[in-house]
Specification:
By secondary structure, this protein is α+β, with helices and mostly antiparallel strands. It is built from ten helices and eight strands. The longest helix has 21 residues. Keywords: DNA-binding, Transcription, Transcription regulation.
Length: 284
């Protein structure tokens, strides 16, 4: 594999979304192109109603069980879900259909998203909504109001998902100055990690002192600003090393390092091994 492939939603649909129900009887043994490691240019949501399943996302195994909701971001490298007699829903949504304030909830958390356990009531409501969306998605094609109907139903699903994930009681989600700074910092980090690597530069963009920013981020997440900068950069480096054959020098260049030797030293300090050793061990 020369580089990590990107799965384009527009190659599969012209309406900005896909919805599929999977059943315990579905045969997932046949490997397909979509089963290989890839990124998407869209969001993916999974809702399991029965059984369990496993996803490998950014080199981490994520276990889903009945009654859990989970999502994958466009930047994340993942494999197709593997299920053990599971049933549930798959929903792919174009980023253009997700309002900016919703994306802020889904994307701008420093700690990676985790599967969310739904109450019996929530599971029933999600299931009913997805059944309706699936029915309209299939049966309403050709109708004059097809797009407004399915897009409105998708917005209802997204609103429910935002409510579900934002209601999780963590320090990061509380409406404090530190929590707001953490969200703003994450947004900047997503945009500028390849070009800005100095904690003081992020503090300047946020109009606070480096010490104040570091204290706020550590209070919310338990880790420093420098740690999260390294996490953002080297998570992408690990994706490229593991899932592609891109040369290490090219990876360093793509991540904004003009000094190749410095990239090697920084990666080793953060990961405990060189990039080449990480690639070699990861593929054994």
């Amino acid at each position: 594999m020369k580089s990590i492939p990107v799965d384009q939603l527009r190659d599969k649909t012209s309406v900005g979304l896909q919805i599929k129900a999977f059943r315990a009887s579905d045969n997932q043994q046949n490997e397909t192109k979509s089963a290989a490691a890839h990124r998407d240019d869209h969001y993916i949501f999974f809702l399991l109603t029965n059984g369990s399943g496993t996803l490998k996302v950014d080199l981490q195994d994520v276990v889903l069980t009945a009654g859990q909701l989970y999502y994958i971001l466009p930047s994340q490298v993942h494999y197709r879900i593997k299920t053990d007699s599971a049933a549930g829903w798959f929903l792919a949504v174009d980023t253009s259909l997700i309002p900016p304030d919703f994306r802020d909830i889904f994307e701008h958390r420093l700690n990676s998203q985790l599967p969310c356990r739904l109450t019996d009531y929530e599971l029933k409501q999600y299931s009913n909504l997805l059944i309706l969306l699936h029915t309209e998605f299939i049966e309403r094609q050709g109708d004059k109001y097809y797009l407004p109907i399915i897009h409105t139903l998708v917005q209802s699903f997204l609103s429910m998902a935002v409510s579900t994930f934002s209601s999780i009681e963590t320090t990061e989600n509380k409406h404090t100055r530190s929590a707001e700074l953490a969200r703003q910092f994450k947004s900047l980090l997503t945009t500028y990690s390849h070009t800005i690597k100095s904690p003081s530069a992020y503090a300047s963009k946020l109009n606070v002192s480096p010490g104040y920013l570091n204290e706020a981020i550590k209070k919310v997440t338990g880790s420093t600003v420098s740690y999260w900068i390294q996490q953002e950069i080297f998570s992408e480096a690990k994706r490229l090393l593991y899932h592609s054959d891109v040369d290490v020098k090219q990876i360093a260049h793509e991540l904004g390092y003009t000094d190749y030797a410095y990239f090697i030293r920084s990666f080793h300090k953060a990961s405990g091994m060189s990039p080449l050793k990480f690639r070699m061990l990861g593929r054994k």
